[in-house]
Amino acid sequence: MSTITILPSLLAADPGRLAEECRRAVAAGANGLHVDIMDGHLVANLSLGPNVVAMARRTVKVPLSTHLMVTHPQHFVDLFIQAGANPLLIHVEAQCDVRAVLRAIRGRGVRAGLTLNPETPVEAVVPFLDEADEILFMSVHPGLGGQAFIPQVLPKIADIRRRAPNLPLSIDGGINRATAVQAAEQGAHVFIIGTFLFQAPDMAAEIVALRRETTAAYGRKTEALE
Ligand code: DX5
Ligand code: ZN
Q1: Ligand 1 mean position to 205 CA, how many Å?
Q2: Best substitution site from 37, 138, 195, 210 to test ligand 1's pocket, by max atoms within 8 Å of Cβ?
Q3: Helix, strand, coil: what percent of the chain each, to 5?
Q4: Structural domain count of the chain
Q5: Which CATH number goes with the domain that contains 99?
Q6: pLDDT (tens digit per residue) in 135-173
């Protein structure tokens, strides 16, 4: 059984109090933090940058899952690793030699993650399963927090879980207790959660409940698909 990992996404934190929000999330029981980087090109928005990763690295001791929603991730690997990113996740839709970038990240001693958008078929990431330390399934169209979960992603998780039984599988976008359980049933165990956690009246209580409910649900539906 894989360990449930809960990663609050700083995109939904109060931007005027980011360091305090990092400490609040870790005190509430988060296993790490997630930092969204957008270039206005791969996605139609801008967000956080390497200075926020560096701030979080100085502020808390947990891993910083850094999600590069950028067209040319190869230009930014060193910058984000120096800032403290680990894992560092790129998109399979990016314009780069995916294998080479994953290897470059691993070569720096950092976990390399590969992300796919909701409409991208799993076949796009299958050639890279041996080169990746994590597969991240987008369950919204990336670029904005607070969107509704796209359930069509669910069978894709089960598909990769069958192909790679031990690979960390994460999900990002529209995650709350109900959608986290649905993803856990299919074999996801890393949950990236923005709006739901940062707007919760009691983040610690939500993390306890998420951990309990996803642990119970993990893998419940993967066997049915064998
Ligand atoms: C979306 C980002 C997510 C975002 C999730 O493009 O990749 O990490 O913060 O936010 P919620 O949980 O609000 O959907
Ligand atoms: Zn993200």
Answers
A1: 20
A2: 195
A3: 40, 20, 40
A4: 1
A5: 3.20.20.70
A6: 999 999 999 999 999 999 999 999 999 999 999 999 999
